Amino acid sequence: MKFAYDLCGAEPIIKDEPIYDAATIQYGELVMLGTGAASAGAGSLNTFVTGVVNTVGGTMAVDTLGICLETKTTADSPSIAAGHIAAGTAGGCFGKCIINPFAVYRAEVDTAGFAIASSTTPSQFTVTGSGQNLFNGSWVYFSASAGPNYGEIRQIVAAATSGTQVMDSVVANTITTADQVVVIAPKNGYSNVLNTTATGISQTSVGGYTATNLRVVETYINKQDGGFEIMSSKQKGSKVGSGLAGKVRFFNDIMMKDHIFGVQE
């Protein structure tokens, strides 16, 4: 994840902040305020930790700060696992972090897709998961090289809690369970969940997007590093050529709805 721009036009504001993790905080990792007791030191309420608390839930990216611009591990001195409060220690670890409340970060979307459970028509499919009705308006990319629709891009125009996804148009071939789909959140929607290191966007079919506390400012496709192209109506019904299908990448520009120094929801 990297700083893209600030909605107010500001340059990145960088400060040394107390950070904690049992093993590593990575460069580009989104961090949020810990919630533990101050006396605990580790992950305490005045220390910033990985922006992921659970894979789906309202506690993800709450009191978010921004991204860390350093990699810190237990090999550092002080160790990333050192407490910030406990007496008699060498002190806790600090890292340089961007703290802009209106910062926008560019995060790559994981292209490990969902398995398709079933399909009754070439314009819709079903995936397993309780939050699939929240996919409405999202983009889908057929990502399985073994699938008959590899490289197809569509937009979901209707979705049900049963997991049925209705696309804007039919795909070229009969949808089978050999197909997989990547769901890419649309502009002005909610991003999917953070990955476990809070360095990018992952995929989940459980719980939905509203728990991420991250809003999508823009969505992009990048084909074989050929430049960023905004996802728009011209992508509806399109297909990435077979030579590029395995090299396509997707990105969300995201901003924090719940920032420690800004608006908190």
Can you describe what's shown?
The chain is elongated. The model has no long low-confidence stretch (mean pLDDT 85). It folds into two domains: 2-105, no CATH class; 108-256, no CATH class. The strands form five sheets. Strands 10, 11, 12, 13, 14, 15, 16 and 19 form an eight-stranded antiparallel beta sheet that branches. Strands 1-9-20-17-18 form a five-stranded antiparallel beta sheet, with no helix packed on it. A three-stranded antiparallel beta sheet has the order 5-4-6, with no helix packed on it. It is mainly beta and 265 residues long. It has no helices and 20 strands.
What are the SSEs and their pairings?
Layout (H helix, E strand, L loop, with lengths): L1 E5 L7 E6 L4 E2 L4 E4 L14 E3 L13 E4 L4 E2 L19 E6 L4 E7 L4 E2 L2 E4 L2 E3 L12 E4 L9 E8 L4 E4 L12 E5 L29 E10 L4 E3 L7 E2 L8 E9 L9
Antiparallel strand pairs: 1-9, 2-8, 3-7, 4-5, 4-6, 9-20, 10-16, 11-12, 12-15, 13-14, 13-16, 14-15, 14-19, 17-18, 17-20
Q: Count every beta strand, where a strand is a DSSP E run of 2 or more residues.
A: 20
Cα distance spanning the termini = 23 Å
Largest sheet: 8 strands, antiparallel
Mean pLDDT: 85
Shape: elongated
What is this structure, in a nutshell?
The protein is an all-beta fold.
Tags for this model:
eight-stranded antiparallel beta sheet, elongated, mainly beta, 2 domains, single chain
